[in-house]
Amino acid sequence: MSGTQDPNEPSQTPPPHNEPPASPPPQQAAPESASTDAAGSDDRNLAMLTHLSGLLFSVVMPLVVWLINKDNSAKAYLNEQAKEALNFQITIMIAFVVSFILTFVIIGALLMPLVGLANLILCIVAAVKTANGENFRYPFTLRLIS
How far, in Å, CA of 64 to CA of 76, rounded? Predict the structure, then answer.
């Protein structure tokens, strides 16, 4: 006997039942109102502006946004991103002060533009990430505000 079955012979498996295939359970969409979407979008936009504001206003704007929203549990994302931006801008201020002090031994003149460039690049990256609703953590940042 070979391992193949003759198509003319009846098969040993029972015939399939004439039941319709089970349909998957209906998907229920999460009930979200337009105001919930708008608040999420507003928080993302404000978080983005908070990160970008560090380029012009240093710690001022992140500090104001964090102080306004720190006790509001509905603004947890915005609160977290404002703290992150504030910690980063404090770290950048410290780096600029150290670079200025080191200008007297010439290396600070090289460090200051690098600190400024790092501030520019990382603020833009943070703004893009937060505009997409992602959490962003700056590298090499002192976590002074928790």
Answer: 15
Residue 120 covered by a domain:
yes
Whether residue 126 contacts residue 51, with contact meaning beta carbons closer than 8 Å, is answered with yes
In a domain, 116, yes or no: yes
The reported pLDDT for the residue numbered 5 is 60
Indicate whether 29 belongs to any domain.
no
Domain assignment of residue 112, given as a range: 36-131
Residues making up the chain, counted from first to last = 146
Write out the two tokens for 93. Answer: 């201020």
Q: Are 23 and 31 in contact (CB under 8 A)?
A: no
How many other C-beta atoms are found inside a 10 Å radius of the C-beta of residue 93?
Answer: 14
φ and ψ of 10, to 5 deg: -65, 145
For 21-59, how does the pLDDT look when each residue is reduced to its tens digit (9 = 90+)? Answer: 555 555 554 444 343 344 588 999 999 999 999 999 999
